[in-house]
C-alpha cells in the first residue's frame, strides 16, 4: 500500500483503480455529451487499461440485460484479453462498439464497487506479486479468453459462477494479490465444472427425448 490523498491516507492499488473508474464516469455524466457506448467506455477508461476494463466488463456481465447482452459482454472481454496479450490498444468493431450502455446504472455500479474495494482491501493486499506481474499477462489473458468463450453459451445461469471467478481474478490482478488470484481461479474452475455438468445433462435430456419420439 501507499499513501495517497489528504492526510496521507493509505489506499490499496485496486482502490486507486476503482476511484479512477468512478471519477471518469462522473466526468462523462457531467459533460455535454453523456451518451455512453462500449467504445466510448473504453476511450474514457483508456485504451491500454486492459486489466481495469476486464474487471469492469465482468462486473457489467452481472447486470440484467436484453437477449444477447451477455454474449456481447463476453466477446468484448475476449477482445480486451486478446489486445492485452499482444500489447495492442483496445479497439472494437462497430457492431459491438456502437452499442449503448446505461451510464447512470454504470455509475451506481462503479460506486458500489469502489465501496466494496475499500472493504475488500482489508483482506486483499499485495502478496505473491509474481503471480500478478507482467509475466502473468499472457497466461491470464489466455485464461480470460477461454472463460469468455464459455460465457457466450446462451444457457441461463451457467455462466454466473465462472464470471464471479473471473471478477475475483481481475480484482486480484489489479491489487497485485496472488492469493486472491488463485482463489478466483478455483471459483472459475468450479463454475466450469458446473457448466460442463449442466451441458452434459441438457445433452442427455435431449437425447432421451429424441429416442422416445422414435
UniProtKB/TrEMBL annotation:
<dbReference type="InterPro" id="IPR010331">
    <property type="entry name" value="ExoD"/>
</dbReference>
<dbReference type="Pfam" id="PF06055">
    <property type="entry name" value="ExoD"/>
</dbReference>
<protein>
    <submittedName>
        <fullName>Exopolysaccharide biosynthesis protein</fullName>
    </submittedName>
</protein>
